[in-house]
Each structure stands twice: as structure tokens, then as C-alpha cells.
Amino acid sequence: MYASREDIGYDFGDDSKVGSKPIKPNPNIDGGWAWMIVLSSFLVHILIMGSQMALGILNMEWLEEFNQSRGLTAWVSSLSMGITLIVGPFIGLFISMCGCRTTAIVGGILNALGWILSAYASNVHYLFLTFGVTAGIGSGMVYLPAVVMVGQYFQKRRALAQGLSTTGTGFGAFLMTALLKYLCTEFGWRNAMFIQGAISLNLCVCGALMRPLSPKDLSEKYVVRSDSEENRAKALSHSTETIKSNGVLDEEAEKKEEAANEEVLGSVQHIEIGGKSGSGRSMYGLRILKTVSQLTVTVRKGFALWYSSYFGAASLFTNRVFVAFIIWALFAYSSFVIPFIHLPEIVKQYNLSRQDNVFPLTSIIAIVHIFGKVILGIISDLPCISTWNVFLLANFTLVTCILTLPLMQTYVGLAVVCALIGFSSGYFSLMPVVTEDLVGTKHLANAYGIIICANGISALFGPPFAGWIYDITQKYDFSFYIAGLLYTVGIIFLLIQPCIQKKRPREKSTEEAQV
């Protein structure tokens, strides 16, 4: 129930006994059903992130329908995108209690409900509740399990798998933009949202594909990993000492609590067996009591794991590198979102609309972004390459492009910078990999929930902040400069903390592990 030192992802150098056990790995790890998980995650990114990238089509319809200011209307899209990511830590609680599959299916229903209810909106404030909040929470309940499940099913090819699954964002941006534009033209925006709600029910199918690994399979994965991470503990020694000083939660207390829970369930079962001669009503009541008891145990275990990850002795916040990662995330995502929101206006100011209509700059970002995710994932999986170094190099490239973009006043110059922005932002596929390296697979859901929550805050306030700067200066230059400087501050926090610069050695083959 509680976090052990292996679960947090640290190696204390005493795993010799564990590593000597013969291991028969699950064939679905790095193969088999794992690729169905990648397909499921790919479709989730198309339906959720792709749809959010295409909200500009609906935003124009809402402006014409409700005659509200651009700032107020834009908050509908910002709420949906921001809440999808901000609810990450709370979705981690649902995953701990119910699992990824159940959480994703419920989220798919909630997301579809938000789209359908929005079709009957009478004002913008109604959309805040139905589309911004309801659909946003539903999206978050599907998005986080889609990322977590890929991390659970892959060990050797994690970066490539995450890269392939997250390319759905780029594909979805094209598909959903064309689809929503066609639906709005043919049927009107209200019917378009109703149809999109029906399409979003396919998220439930994606959730059903998220077949959970058994605890035995996960423990075997930890054993294989612990034998290949001896050097990584040295790089994170400072964070390890922090965990040691705080102490790991008492395992004996965990065993006692589990024994007590089993005793309660056993007593209920004994009463049920002994009372077979009783009335059917009594037997029905005992079955309900047993079900409630089992549900209570599951909820308590899930909440204890979630609580210990945030506030317990093994809290994620005792890892200084992870805390620096959170600070970085608070500034990073807005630097990617701001160009998508404000590039059309910049093109108009520079009188480049004719060239942009032929091949939009935002399309260049989206297309190259797809290739960037896959290529960076392949490079990161190479034995001689550190995922952390690739992640940092991509960040440096992106922040340089953000600071350089206002200096470009020709279409060719802007196109080159946008292509570099799209490629370097492919590091998003490495974020789950880096997070798992920091905290371990078992805590990936809670840890990545915190990271995407920070990204959500950045996405929620970044574009409005850039617009506010424009209202003051009548230029977008300072918006990009300020965003770039804040982004640089986040990167500095990553550099000044102990970091995982050594690539994890490749896992030993099955034959070597058995010997």
C-alpha cells in the first residue's frame, strides 16, 4: 500500500538478493498488448488534444453567436485546455483507487456529456460550465491514464512508445480542424458539437483497451529495472538522502492494516457461509456488506498511496529534482501555446496573410511537431544517449526560437523558426519518460499528474497574459521576450539541481537475468 524505496525509483545498493531471482518477464511488456496500449493512447490524443487545438473554429462561431468580447469568449477554450491538465493530481487519486481503465471510461462519458450539453448553450457563461469544466474534467480523466499506461507497458522502448502515442496531437489538430469546419458549415455549430460529443464516446473504447498489468507483472518489471539502475542512485544521491532522512513509511504497519482488512472480510464471509440456512434477505444483506467492505478496503488503499505520494514521509516533494521539474513546467507550456494563439495576428501585422493562407505557420509547427516527437523518442532510446540530455537540448532550442521569433519579419524566416519550434517541442513525448526516471513506475500517475497540472496553469494564464502585454505595448514582441525569459528561469532550475545525466543501462536479457 505504501511506497517502498524501489517504488520511488531510488536504488539504495542492496538489491543483490532481488536481482538474483530468476525472472520470467511478461510478453506484453515491450510487445504484444503493449502496442494496443500505444494505439489507445494515440486515439486519445487525437480526440482530446487534437480537438482542443481545433477550438479556434468554434471560437469564431461563439463570437458571432453571443456577441461577447474576444477576451471573455477565449476563456472557454482556455478553461477546457487548462482544466484538462490542472486536474491531474486529483485524477491520480481516481487511478490509485479505481485503476486506469475505469477512470478513462468514466472520463470518456463525462467528456461526451460536456460536448452534448454545450450544444444547448444560451450564453458564454453556460459554456464555461459545460465545455470548460465538464468536458475539461472528462478530458483529464482520459488523458492521464493514456500516458500512464504506456509507461507501465514499456521498459526498453518507453521514449519511442510515448513519442508514437503523442503524435496523435498533431494528427488530431489536422483531422479535427477539418471535421469541425465541415460540420459547422453543413449543420451549424450546435449540431457540430452534438456530433462531436457522439464521436467522443469512442474515448470509452480507448479506455476499455487499457488492460491493467497484474501486480506480479509490475513487481517483475521493478526487479528487472532495479538490477540496471545501480549508477542512477549516485546521480540522485542528494534526493536519496532526503528520502532517507524523512524515513520510509513503516511496512509493518502496512502489513498489520492489510491483515486487519482481510480479517474483516473473512469474518463477513464466515457469517455468510454459516448463515446459508437463514433467509434469502439476510444472505442478500451479507453480500452487500461484503461488497461494501471490499470497496472500502480498495478506496483506503488507493487514498493511502495517493496521500503518501504528496504528503507522507515518501512524498514526491522530497525529491529536489522533481520539484525543479515542477517549476520548469510552470513556465514551459505557455511558450508552446502562445505561438498557436497569436501567430495569425502577427502574420496579419506583417502583411504576410497571402503566404500564410497557402501554408499556415501553425500547420508547419503541427507537422514538424509530429516528426520531432518520433525522432527525439528514437534518439533517446539509443544505448549511448541520455534521455535527460536530449530533453535539455530540446528545451534550449525551443527557448532560443521563442526569443528569436519576434526578430523575423519575413515569411521564410518565420517558417524556419516555426519548424524549429515544432521539432524541439517534440520533447513533450520525453516528459513521461523523465518523470518515470525520477519517481518510478508506481508513482508515475501521481507525479505526472502534478507535472501536467503545472502545464495546465501555464496554458490557462499564458495566452491571456500575452494578450494583456499586447494591449499595453501594442506589440507582440514583449510577449515572446517575457515568455522566453520565464522559460529560461525554469531551465536554470533544472540545471542547478542534481540531475539524472547518466543513461540507464540496457536491461539484461532474460537468459542473463535467469543466471
TrEMBL record:
The keyword Coiled coil does not apply. It is a multi-pass membrane protein. Its main location: membrane. GO terms for molecular function: monocarboxylic acid transmembrane transporter activity. One of its GO terms (cellular component) is membrane. Pfam families: MFS_1 (PF07690). The chain crosses the membrane at residues 33-55, 75-95, 102-120, 126-148, 160-180, 192-210, 321-341, 361-379, 386-405, 411-434, 446-466, 478-496. Gene3D superfamilies: MFS general substrate transporter like domains. Keywords: Membrane, Transmembrane, Transmembrane helix. The keyword Membrane applies. It comes from the Eukaryota. Residues 37-502 form the Major facilitator superfamily (MFS) profile domain. It is found in: Membrane. PANTHER family: MONOCARBOXYLATE TRANSPORTER, MONOCARBOXYLATE TRANSPORTER 14. This is MOT14 protein. It comes from Callaeas wilsoni (North Island kokako). The lineage of its organism: Eukaryota, Metazoa, Chordata, Craniata, Vertebrata.
